[in-house]
Write a structure and sequence with these properties.
The chain is of the alpha/beta class and 275 residues long. It has one domain: Rossmann fold, CATH 3.40.50.720. Helices cover 45% and strands 13% of the residues. It has 9 helices and 7 strands. Helix 1 runs parallel beside helix 2, helix 4 packs parallel to helix 6 and helix 7 packs across helix 8.
Length: 275
Amino acid sequence: MASSSGASSPSPTDVTDYAGRVVIVTGGTRGIGRGCVEVFASAGAHVVFCSHEPDGGAELSTTVTARGPGRAEFARCDVADAGALTALVTETAVRLGRLDCLINNAGWHPPHKPIDDFTLDEFESLMRLNVTSVFVGCRAALPFLRLSRGCIINIASLVATIGQYHATTYVASKGAVLSLTKALAVDEARHGVRVNAVSPGNIDTPLWQQAVDQSPDPRRTRADGEAAQPLGRMGTAEEVGRLCLFLAAGATFTTGVDHIISGGAELGYGRKVAD
């Protein structure tokens, strides 16, 4: 049925089916990026994922492709290198004949410390990795996404909206990702390209485990991380991947929205503990 404006709405789609689509995931060898690679490939997509480190890339590609029904291929790329990222996106889209979804996931959370202890170089380096790479990836992908009426998913963070102790640089970078997402959604709507953000809270990833291991009391740190959610646990990378798949395959009337996946960590006041 046509809308009042004369434009027809998309037909209902299977939100677990992304067969025949091409997806790029940055920072895809570990954590949330790996979860996205596995989930999209399980939905039939051809996933190209990258990391600045080669460790695990070939193994993940082989494992995911063997599992099917989609496939995954690894490419080494430092997203902080604008030329390398642009080349990766362009080469992928041209070689595979299309691009349907870009997931800007690569990023880093530096150790917690007050603003006095961050140097300007540290701040600028983090912004180049966490923000500039998102801008570059979007700019490179959009000529192809406009043809496929595809989508962009930018991985932000819950703390971009609620703040975080001793994390001024990281919070600032993820706040910029959210703002870029909303502005780009306005610009690209006329091309049929949807641009959304996903903001994870505490997700059990290797980066989170590293913070646990480096803390003075690892057992207490992990317990605190789990207790921060009313659901009583941290999320998984697969759960974030499934949200991203829904945004790509099923959420056809959603753009410019920040999708928080946090287990309710931002709800209520202070520390959450069991009754």
